Amino acid sequence: MRKEKTPKENLKKDGSIMPKWLFLKPNQTAKENGIFKKLFFIQLALLLLTMPLLSLQYGITGDETDMHTYGQDVLKFYTSGFQDKSYQMDKKSNPDGILKYYGAFFDIIAEGTNNLLGTTETHPYKVRHFYNANFGFLSILFTGLIAKNIGAWRMGVFAIFLMTISPRYFAEAMNNTKDIPFAALFAMSFYLIMIYIKNHPVIKWRLLVLMSISIGLCISTRVAGILLIPYLLLFLFIQYSLSNLIRKRSWKVSRDLAIYYLAAVFSGFIGFFLGSLFWPFALEDPISNPFIALGEMTKYAKGINMLYNGQHIVSTDTPLSYLPNWFFRTTPLVILLGYFSIFVLVWKRLKFQYTQFILFVLFASIFPVLYAMIKKSNLYDTLRHFLFIYPFIVIVSAYGWTILWERVFKWPTKFKSIAIVVWLILIIHPLRFLIVNHPNQVVYFNEITGGTKGNYTKYEMDYYMNSVKQACDWFIENEDVIDRQITVATTSPEQVSHYLKAYSNINVVYVRYNQRYDLMWDYGIFYNRFIDKGLLISKAFPLTNTIHTVVVDEVPLCIVVKQHDKQIHAFVNSINNNDLAKAKVNAKGLLDKYPKDELAYLNMVRFYILENKFDVAIEYANKGLELSPQNFMLLYHRAQAYFYSRKVDQAFIELQKLMRLKSDNAKAWFLMAKIQYTKMNFDDAQISINKAKEFIGNDKKLQMDIQNWVNRMSQGIGNSKLK
Predict the structure, then answer these.
(1) How far is the C-alpha of 323 from the C-alpha of 374, rounded, in Å?
(2) Domains and their CATH numbers in the chain
(3) CA dist., res. 370 & res. 363, Å (int)
(4) pTM of the entire structure?
(5) Is residue 451 within 8 Å of residue 554, measured between CB atoms?
(6) pLDDT confidence of 13, banded at 50, 70, 90?
(7) Residues 141, 157: contact at Cβ < 8 Å?
(8) Which residues, 6 or more positions from 689, have their beta carbon under 8 angstroms from its beta carbon?
């Protein structure tokens, strides 16, 4: 009887007992293999040297000030012997308590270093960006290692190169401290899982320890790291099934195999509990709280307004196509072609030279997106929350290009040259964008969707405020900011305050963009998110008094505005105070100075309503809406003018338009109640009053106006009592 080889005797040179055809091994000579190995490490060395230095040129992101505070609060929790619970709720940075559901591994490292170096108050974000760039490097490193272990050094080189010329991912790797560390640790954990399975059935205990630590760190960065455990179980089951099918053995598990599988499962669950070590909320109840956090993050209810596919929508109502569409638009064409080639050019090879590992990677690139679509998750900030699947998209693409490379180099020299030219053409667009538009690569769109310019006014651009740093740097270098009191208004107060903190004479104030003249200011710094697309289309943004614009491919990302006089401020202030005499003085010549300023028209409408000149108010509202067709305040005041001029039906139609844009406006519901009461639809009026009270917030004046009106109307017609 033939003696069965022991597992160790059965090992191949690459450490695997699986048949050679199970792995893609491109037809490389030893010389080629050596060249690609050198290229692999040369690329990594260049990235390791440059990425941390480049990260210092990127701006503070929209969430980073909150995460900085959260990291400090987490450190207090540990240094106080778990007594200080301020991490659970911070009135300024974490008022809804949502941050406690985030693991704090990265923030502990970054803020611990800040405290050690004494940079907590001076340069905390430079330290955070330095570490983030290193995590970005790790994500590229493990992307390359996964690719190399599937398809040798050539595929690893392709993967690293494609990751590097991905403008959006490269930019996120510099300052996105929420998502890039998670992407890096997810890729590292996936790599270790793959290596463990590749060594089947040999147990490498050091590898198991590293796998547990990696999974734990991933979970302690983002709760979605829990996904690695079902991945591990699924891949082990597939490996076990394939092993038996290939060798046509009994499905009975031997003692050694049982230890192999149980050790991996145990390693995964140890990783789950290790995930609580750097996560205070999970540490308080390591079994239940991670799943509570997962549930809270999955059903996150806060709706965020955004521009998507040419429409203003709320994040809670995103279409199913949201994620696939963003990936399609923002992934370089060269990567998309390589990715989708696996379904066309590579199918036969997959069928006859089957490798489960590339299918594992393909699964990891698709499953999270499908899950989010099925769960109808609250999606916003472009692809930020799904950056962790991008390395797997690139690996699949590198696989496709590796096989295409093999085929191309069997062609005649003439066709090989054509293929190389095509490849160079494909990489020019993202490579040019990466270099020319530094450090704003985060607004990249690929060439087949029209590039950044072609997607402007249809999709959000600088969603994370990166360009605000450049605007502030220009302001400091080019304006006289010394020896005089200056007020700077902005929609990014934490970021601007940090950049200008060296100047005690500068007062930074927060204003909403659509209420920017409610306060007096000398300069304004505004980025282009949360702005009506009509203003973008009509080029009313940048504003008339703009003195500097941060631009990418002719697209304005952030502006610096200088107010040469305060006429528009005085006009708005006089209207807010019902001072019609001053308003009349300041109204003269205003639209000549601000011909494309929607707030100039809006306040003209308000002025003429106060003057009881409703037809004139409607005329100005129409002009304002030509600039900003979806401006809900212009729609509201036009409805108000129609109502006061007894055109009740027209006012009702206007409010219906407004409600489709913004259904949580208390003033609009109050006006709707008045219209319905006038029409003697008392039940509907009561419903509208209830809606107004629901959305009223802390507006004391509006609360009083509603109550006074309800009291007056309740003394009126028959059964018309309202409450």
Answers:
(1) 12
(2) 20-436 (no CATH), 468-562 (no CATH), 586-713 (1.25.40.10)
(3) 10
(4) 0.90
(5) no
(6) very low
(7) no
(8) 669, 670, 673, 706, 710, 722, 723
